[in-house]
Amino acid sequence: MSSFQKKKSLVQALKCKTLTTLILGALAMEAQADGAFNVLGFLNDGTGTSNRFDSEPFFVSANGSVVVGTSINSLGNNEAYRWYNGTMTGLGFLNDGTGTSTSYFNTLERLSADGSVVVGTSGNSLGNNEAYRWYNGTMTGLGFLDKSLTGGNYVSAAESVSADGLVVAGRSQNSQGNYEAYRWYEGTMTGLGFLNDGTGTSTYYDSVVNDVSAYGSTVIGRSYNSQGNSEAYRWHDGTMTGLGFLNDGTGTSTSYFNTLER
User: Fold this and answer.
1) Using CA of residue 178, residue 254, residue 210, residue 124, what is the dihedral sign?
2) SS3 labels along the chain
3) How far apart are CA 122 and CA 86, in angstroms?
4) Does residue 60 carry a pLDDT above 80?
5) 17: pLDDT strictly greater than 70
6) Burial classification of residue 258, based on how many CB atoms lie within 10 Å of its CB (0-12 exposed, 13-18 middle, 19 or more buried)
7) 27-40 pLDDT, tens per residue?
8) pLDDT, tens digit (0-9, with 9 covering 90-100), for 248-262
9) Is the separation of the CB atoms in 156 and 145 below 8 Å?
10) What's the sign of the alpha-carbon dihedral 101, 104, 109, 114?
11) What's this model's pTM, rounded to 2 decimal places?
């Protein structure tokens, strides 16, 4: 069996839910150029209260040296990890134990090209879901587009990061309670707005992020336009531009929608 076939077989096995259940979670592995595999291990070192051992890889850096994913830690919490040079490191949580929340969790979405920056979402000490950027051992909460919402239920999520790791993009609730795409850079979270400019029939405002360019100057995603249709957009230099639809109105269809991936 060729090296390519071995790697393909491994991917298929990891995707098999039945197999995952039988072995209490597929072991995270990194494929080497020579076809060998490194077992990445678990965050649970057996010293805590949890008897669950489970880890799963999600992304790999451009040169293949860094793997990120999630694993159950020794206290039974689902924690993001970064694996490099044989060591799996838990990224921790925004909840530092000083607030009212007793929930510890995080998720991850992307990593930078060299694997030095990881972004995702974690519960903070007040119980809010907050976007984070992890770099050099420190997890930093990115905040929210607005903190004037009543009830203190603030939400933000990181969904992409630039190749150089300096720009993070995602979505957060704004002051009207709408979910709005944002771009974070050097400590500032900026809302990208909506395709709905208020001139049409729709009163729905929502925008999400799919990806960000290598240097973070361009963001793509989707937003509801002024007619209430979900439309792909490109944001650059402060302007969100709708990409339109293949339906030009000349046929029999009255459906207008599009999706995009990257």
Assistant:
1) positive
2) CCHHHHHHHHHHHHHCHHHHHHCCCCCCEEECCCCCEEECCCCCCCCCCCCCCCEEEEEECCCCCEEEEEEECCCCCEEEEEEECCEEEECCCCCCCCCCCCCCCEEEEEECCCCCEEEEEEECCCCCEEEEEEECCEEEECCCCCCCCHHHCCEEEEEEECCCCCEEEEEEECCCCCEEEEEEECCEEEEEECCCCCCCCCCCCCEEEEEECCCCCEEEEEEECCCCCEEEEEEECCEEEECCCCCCCCCCCCCCCCCCCC
3) 25
4) yes
5) no
6) middle
7) 444 455 555 667 78
8) 656 554 444 555 555
9) yes
10) positive
11) 0.79
Instruction: Walk across the sheet containing 55-60 and list its strands.
Output: 55-60, 66-72, 78-84, 87-90
- The dihedral region occupied by 85, where left means phi > 0, alpha psi between -120 and 50, and beta the remainder, is left
Per-residue confidence (pLDDT) for residue 76, from 0 to 100: 85
Question: Cα–Cα distances in Å, from 242 out to 9, 81, 207, 221, 237?
Answer: 40, 37, 12, 10, 14
Residue-wise pLDDT for 136-155, tens only, equals: 999 999 999 987 655 567 89
Closest residue by Cα to residue 171 from 199, 197, 206 = 206
Q: Give the pair of three-digit tokens for residue 168.
A: 């993070």
Measured from the Cβ of residue 237, the count of other Cβ atoms closer than 10 Å reads: 6
Which single residue is written with the structure tokens 């929502």? 206
Q: Is the pLDDT confidence value at 159 over 70?
A: yes
Extract the tokens encoding 6.
């071995």
42: how many CB neighbours lie within 10 A of its CB?
20
- φ and ψ at residue 19, rounded to 5 degrees: -65, -40
